[in-house]
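Hi R.,

As promised, here are both runs. First protein below:
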Amino acid sequence: MFVTSNFARQIAEIEAGLRKPVIFVGDLKPRRDYSDVRDIVRGYWMLLERGEPGEVYNLCSRRSWATQQVLDFYVEQSHTKGIAVEIDPERLRPSDVMLL
């Protein structure tokens, strides 16, 4: 399950009146690099044209976002105000990578 789509689904259900205004989350501290898919596709194309076989390339934005920041953004964009956030122990991953 992807955290961003899970947040979006929960907010959509709240806005549609299908659930109470509570979002259930896991650990909000991990940081992830989010990139626009168009930038990544452009990078793949450049690598096809100019990349060296056998070399390692990392395509990313070089900016990390805490899961908390992503959640805050989604909640701010919601038409429903006063959404609560609750930690769900089932969503906590002991092996979660803090920076990816």
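And here is the second one, sequence first, then its structure tokens:
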Amino acid sequence: MVEIRLSRHGTKKTPFYRVVVTEKRRPRDGRFIENIGTFDPAGALNIDTGRLEYWQSKGAKPSHTVDRLLKKRAKEAAVAKS
């Protein structure tokens, strides 16, 4: 099964994450199919929405954390519009 999840990078105590599409059985920081964005806990979530929609149409499921980040981003965008 294909999953959209975070891959941890950065240095000790200053994490930086990549949003990747990978097989569910692969290690957290292991090989991935495609890098579709980044997440900096001190900053924001940057993601290629076109590729996200493409992978979701192919059956990829976001992890719990990525799903939560996407919902938070959508909520902030809705507040900014109004």
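A quick note on the second one: The chain has a mean pLDDT of 92. Let me know what you think.

Best,
J.
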